[in-house]
Structure formats: C-alpha cells, structure tokens
C-alpha cells in the first residue's frame, strides 16, 4: 500500500511538472509577438522622431529598447529550457570536439574584436543526443567566452580526464570565476552569481543541468573568485 501511494504521488508530481512546463512554453511563445510589436514601435520612434526628442527622452527610449532586447533573450532562453524535456532523445555517437569548435567559431564571428586562446582536445566522443549536446556545449562555451571578456589574455580549454576508468569532459577558462560557497546555486534557473556588468539571466546553466539530467549524467564546477572556472561533466 505504501509503495502504491508513493508511486501515485510520483505520477501526480510528474504530471504537474509536465503541465507547468507546457504552460511555461505556451506563455513564453505567445509573448514573442507583442514584444516584437513593442520593439518595432520603439525603433520607429528612434529612427523617425529622434531629432524631435530631448536628450533625456532619447536616453529613456534607448533604455526601453534594451529592456525589450533583454526580455526577448529571456523568452528565448525560457523556451530553450522548456524544450529540453519535450525533445525525444536520439542516442548517437557524438563528437564533442567538433561541436566545441563550431561553437567557438560562432562566438568569434559574433565578437570579431576579441582574441582568445582556444585549446580543444581531439577525439572527445560521447554517446548522447546530438541536438541537446550541441546546446550544452554552446551554453558552456558562451559562458566561458562571456566571463573571460575582462581578461587581458583570455584562454578557454576543452579536454578530458579519466577518473576511476570514467571519461570526464571539462571546459576550463581563466575568467572572473565565482565564489565557491555559492556553487550549489550555479545550475538553478534565474540564479546569477555576478552583477549586471555581465549579460545573462541565469537560465543557460539551468538548461545545461537539465540536458545532463536527461542523459542521466552528472555535472559539477570548481572555481575561485578571480581565478577562472572549470566545469566537469560525465555521460553514462
């Protein structure tokens, strides 16, 4: 009887979580259209009426446009987070080295003024869903790219170590790092360990954790404030 009650509660909880995820996905999706309209109207004001606006009004207009861009990214990230549990996993042999190089190329193209030393080990093969692992590598490397932006000689490394006969993948950077006493909050949605000097909303690493959980793997991070960070993950 106790086992049946526990199973029933677990099933009820699973249904509730799925309903909340569906609600989050629907709300986030439906917010896109009105937000595009708001941003469009603000752009028209900025382009057609800028010369008629006082300096303070132009400043407020630009802050409003930035707020819509931030909200648009938040919606995209929320949709990405919700989508992780909606995708049916397809297990293949995936070349993480190639995914890492592709992500770094995209990051460099989007920020051509930066020079970053990048070291990516060859032959990092794992079993998993390629689409989700592509998102995982992008989120982790985008994170490293962002938090090395204030360094004079930024470096990002992707490699492997073997621990107890198990392959462990790592992404290491020499960025600003984080206070290790807060690392339990690292993978919690909307939890930020840095100030507004760095863009972000705390969803990227939550998405990474959810991808790892779906693969029944493990992820953790080590860091010292001002000494860079290293993320480790294991896939079964």
Automatic annotation (TrEMBL):
What reaction(s) does this enzyme catalyze? ATP + protein L-histidine = ADP + protein N-phospho-L-histidine
CDD domains associated with the record: HisKA
Q: Which UniProt keywords apply?
A: Kinase, Transferase
E.C. number, please? 2.7.13.3
Q: What class of enzyme is it?
A: transferase
Histidine kinase domain residues: 26-236
Supply the name of the protein. histidine kinase
Native organism is Geomonas diazotrophica
């Amino acid at each position: 009887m106790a086992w049946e009650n526990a199973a029933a509660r677990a099933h009820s909880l699973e249904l509730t979580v799925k309903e909340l995820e569906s609600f989050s996905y629907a709300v986030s999706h439906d917010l896109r259209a009105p937000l595009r309209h708001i941003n469009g109207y603000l752009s028209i004001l900025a382009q057609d009426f800028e010369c008629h606006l006082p300096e303070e009004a132009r400043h407020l207009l630009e802050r409003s446009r930035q707020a819509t861009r931030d909200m648009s990214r938040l919606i995209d990230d929320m949709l990405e987070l919700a989508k992780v549990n909606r995708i049916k996993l397809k297990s293949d042999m995936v070349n993480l080295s190639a995914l890492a190089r592709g992500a770094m190329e995209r990051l460099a193209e989007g920020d051509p003024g930066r020079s970053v030393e990048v070291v990516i080990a060859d032959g990092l093969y794992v079993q998993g869903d390629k689409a989700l692992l592509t998102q995982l590598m992008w989120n982790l490397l985008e994170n490293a790219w962002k938090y090395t932006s204030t360094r004079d000689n930024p470096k990002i490394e992707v490699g492997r170590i073997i621990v107890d006969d198990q392959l462990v993948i790592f992404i290491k950077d020499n960025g600003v790092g984080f206070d290790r006493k807060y690392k339990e909050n690292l993978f919690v949605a909307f939890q930020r360990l840095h100030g507004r000097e760095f863009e972000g909303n705390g969803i990227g690493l939550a998405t990474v954790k959810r991808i790892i959980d779906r693969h029944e793997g493990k992820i953790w991070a080590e860091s010292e404030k001002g000494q860079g960070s290293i993320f480790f993950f294991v896939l079964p």
